[in-house]
Amino acid sequence: MILNQYGRPYMTNPTYEGASQSPRMSGFMAPTIGPNTALSGNLNTLRGRSRQAIRNNPLAKGAQATKTANMVGTGITPRFNFKNTPEVKAAIQELWQDSVPELDWDETTDFYGQQAIVSNAVFSDGECLAMFRPRNRYADLAVPLQVQILEADHLDVSYTTTLPNGNKVRMGIEYNKMGKRVAYWLYKDHPGEMYMDSDGTRVRVLAKNIMHIFDPTRPGQQRGLPSSSSILVKLNEIDQCVDAELVRRKTTAMFGGFIKKVENYGQTAADVLGQKVTGTTNSANIIAFEPGTFPELPFGYDVVFSEPKDVGGNYVAWMKQQLMDLARGWGITYDQLTGDLSSVNYSSIRAGLLEFRRAITQEQNKTLVFQYCRPVIQRWLDTAVLVNAVTIPDYHQKKRQYYRGISWQPQPWPWIEPYKDRMAEILEMRAGAKNYNMMLTERGLDPESFFAQLSEELSMIDKMGFVFDTDPRKTTKTGLYQSTDEGGEDE
């Protein structure tokens, strides 16, 4: 360190301007704390404020609904990729359809409804818990297994200790000496519910029976962060600003005008107009008029109409920019947040939706599918085999290599402009860049089931002698009949 004549270090320009200690950056406080330290003291407050915003702010409520509608829609469905055992595949598919409405422990929705509940919770709270609840094999269930959805409040963020066996509990999660999750310490009752018999006790639940769904954004992050965390301040300020403007407009709209006494006459304005005085404010008469009234004022009185000042010509542009910031923070587009489509065209809305859908697909696969859907169906299949709900002789030998080959298909995205999108897909298929399986899977259809139904349908059409201009076997793409002779020449 080189000191100047006053014993102070010489100021040098930093390698990165962002690390400068100049007056411009002196107020930029950036603590270098870890992801869990940053969360532990703030998570409950962030979660509470996020929920409050969703309860009372239509923008937050709408953003949550938009994310869940695109994350889940009608449900993310499994595809059983068992090509070599069609009988087993059919039996598992039928059993799964029977279990879908029975999986919810609370019996208020089905498995796909649970997906929406989980998605809503991850948006508002940053995380959600789901617990496996095995049932008696004689319960009236297709497979004796249910799943209970729990709010993250059951997992106390302040519970941090070291257990006698050397395991460490961090924010309610127990880790062994290798740093692996082994258990969750959960409140028996929701700590926010006011039950007289609630004693605030915790129970230890093995990690294999808990699904902890959240989106980790930093390595080693143990708990989830609400989606509104980065924009809560702006959201609250905008809400207050809009409320203030609403109250101002409401107040000014109540005054149509003022009757001013030019001369010092003894009569009041109410006396002159023959109106009833409905109240006084600072000795000024407030007069109630009816629509269509044209009073004649005597000499000495004048009417001054109320002309409240506007907020300025840049209010709309300023508010639009603030709403765009909120939309970006929530990971949705401006038009999805506001419903304002006045300035979009096909190209702009397509570009925005492509980016949005890419982000949604990423979140679907790394959180909802990987952390929730995948463990549920694996435990469900294990249980089904264990209780002989389905017979798979080689299940234990080929389980991981074969019978867990299950993919998940979200609800397909709707067309932005059906004709253009469909023509583009046809060109892809003719060029060999896409096959039928890919096309059908993107639409949420099972290729094997689709082709089986199509074959049956075409056989029925041929048997009855019908020819439709949509049948490429017998008509051209313009709908003209073409010969099916062996020579291959058109008639």
> What general outline do the C-alpha atoms trace?
extended
Distance between the termini: 95 Å
Main beta sheet strand tally, sense and closure: 5 strands, antiparallel
Number of helices: 14
Proportion in helices? 40-55%
Structural class: alpha+beta
Mean pLDDT over all positions: 85
Spatial extent as radius of gyration: 33 Å
* Order of SSEs: HHHEHHEEEEEEEEHEHEEEHHHHEHHH
- Which consecutive residue ranges, at least 5 long each, have pLDDT under 50? 487-491
Query: What is the β-strand count?
Result: 14
Quote the beta fraction.
5-15%
Question: Could you give the order of strands across the largest sheet?
Answer: 4-5-6-7-8
Task: Give the topology, please.
Elements lengths: L34 H6 L2 H14 L1 H14 L5 E4 L5 H14 L11 H15 L1 E8 L10 E6 L10 E2 L5 E3 L2 E3 L5 E7 L14 E5 L3 E5 L17 H22 L3 E5 L7 H5 L3 E5 L2 E4 L13 E5 L9 H16 L3 H5 L7 H41 L8 H9 L2 E4 L8 H13 L5 H7 L4 H18 L27
Antiparallel strand pairs: 1-14, 2-3, 2-9, 4-5, 5-6, 6-7, 7-8, 10-13, 11-12
What does this structure look like?
This protein has helices at residues 35-40, 43-56, 58-71, 86-99, 111-125, 232-253, 269-273, 315-330, 334-338, 346-386, 395-403, 418-430, 436-442, 447-464, and strands at 77-80, 127-134, 145-150, 161-162, 168-170, 173-175, 181-187, 202-206, 210-214, 257-261, 277-281, 284-287, 301-305, 406-409. With 491 residues, the chain is an alpha+beta fold. It has a domain at 38-255 and 306-411. The strands form five sheets. The chain has a five-stranded antiparallel β-sheet, with no helix packed on it. A three-stranded antiparallel β-sheet has the order 3-2-9. Helix 2 packs across helix 3 and helix 3 (58-71) packs across helix 5 (111-125). The chain is extended.
